[in-house]
Amino acid sequence: MLVTFKVYRYNPEVDDKPHYEKYELELKDDGVILDALNKIKWEIDGSLSYRRSCRHGICGSCAVKLNGKNVLACKTPIKEAVEMFGNELVIEPLSKNKNKVVKDLVVDKKDFWDKHDKVKPYLIAEIDEHPESENLIKPELVEILEEADYCIACGCCFYACGSISVNKDFLGPQALAKTYRFTSDVRDDAKKERLELVNELGSGIWDCVKCQACIEVCPKGVDPFIKITHLHNQAFEEGVAKRNVATKHAEGFVHSIKKHGILDEGMLVLYSESVKVVRHLPEAIAMFRKGKIKLPWQMPKSEKLGEIQKLIEISQTHELKD
Ligand code: FES
Question: To test the ligand 1 pocket, which listed residue (35, 38, 51, 58) has its Cβ within 8 A of the most ligand atoms?
Fold first, then answer.
């Protein structure tokens, strides 16, 4: 199979700015993107820099951007990539921020690791220093972790996250999924402390913008977005969630669905922001004129309202404040 690779090249020590180099490669049908990078380095240009180690989707070091999508180079078949993106494959580093690129496809992941460390990604428990047996838990208690413990810290989700791109304080999908991995482990003693850390406005769970990019790019099926949603519930259940615009938004959402079976966008903003809602008046008027929001007495109700209310009753994990 003949494939053209357009590879991002930048050596901050000698280059003024980044550029792309094209390499035309004859490759085996069953190869992966990492094979192509190895071929370039070993047979064409030894100066190309990229990270790799295990070649089996375990170490997380080979994450790159492939035609705009964050992937593990060692787990992405070239054939699939060509079917998806055509015969020219563009390989870039996870972040093209010039301060982060160390060289070519190698990025400095300090921002990622700092946040990873911040959530204390290890079990906190009083344990015997010299145990005579393993501290096993029942399979059903392991299932609660879902796939949170599959995370290999590759950074694919972190560098795809819509919230991090505009809010550098946001802990990000990886650190939050890692938090869930321990808040859901019955052997961990720091559940409340962990939830308090991720409950902070600006950096924690309430700042996820729900773009779900993390789900799309996670190579291990961790689904960080769902873990963040679980953390929302745990924060309410443990009485950690403070009354603020984000938690009121979450509650307002349920109130609206309970009342109408569909979302009342106008009342949701009023519920979340109370008197501060006046600052959104110009947008509200524009939305009202276009029929995007309705006055309370104009709100239609879903034909399946009864069914929806029952579903909320069954799934609700905490009492709402009126
Ligand atoms: Fe280890 Fe790809 S080389 S995950």
Answer: 58
